[in-house]
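Technical appendix A lists one of the benchmark inputs used to test multi-chain prediction within the project. The record comprises two sequence entries:
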Amino acid sequence: EVQLVESGGGLVQPGGSLRLACVGSGFFFSSYGISWVRQAPGKGLEWVAVISGTGGTSYSADSVRGRFTISRDKSRRTVYLQMDSLRAGDTAIYFCARHPSVDASNYFDFWGQGTQVTVSS
Amino acid sequence: SYELTQPPSVSVSPGQTASITCSGDELGNKYVSWYQQKAGQSPVLVIYEDTKRPSGIPERFSGSSSGNTATLTLRGTQNMDEADYFCQAWDRTSAIFGGGTKLTVL
């Protein structure tokens, strides 16, 4: 069974940092791209960043570029989202989602349950 | 920046057909996927590559695309289909989501 489990969310002050983790199981981890997608309270889905299955290619949304960094650790079957210089507008549930292939420029076939990030003083 | 436009809400009676549209420039040249999100849950893929249905998704869900508009159609809508629906496509190196449509089954 494919599973994605996020962790690392919490309450952080503006300007602070958090590192989210997404652990995958039930599939060959290196063969699939992974994205982070967020959802602010009462709002729609917003794509944040993607990393290919090999980790060699990554892209991020304009709204987070220069502040958030996506990476992956093959041995730990984990994709990370390092979030720096956090703002109130980054408050959201953060989901990780799997792409059905290594190059990750397509749809999201499985989603995790999400982790809450709240940026507030 | 690229945008996908969806109606904020659609209402349908049980057993009837609901259609949710998603429009964007040259959308017909991109693959569109659709996600269902019920209250308090994670999104679920219901249609990918415009018209394909993942295993486990009921046949009443179908997708189509023509010109600048993609459409998600639910035939014989059931109460359990009440949810938010999001379309999604890629624009160069960014994934774009529509604003979402709240489907109400009256």
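The interface with chain A takes residues 1, 31, 33, 35, 37, 42-45, 48-49, 54, 84, 86, 88, 90, 93-100 of chain B (CB under 8 Å). The longest strand of chain B covers residues 83-91. Comparable benchmark entries are summarised in Table A2.
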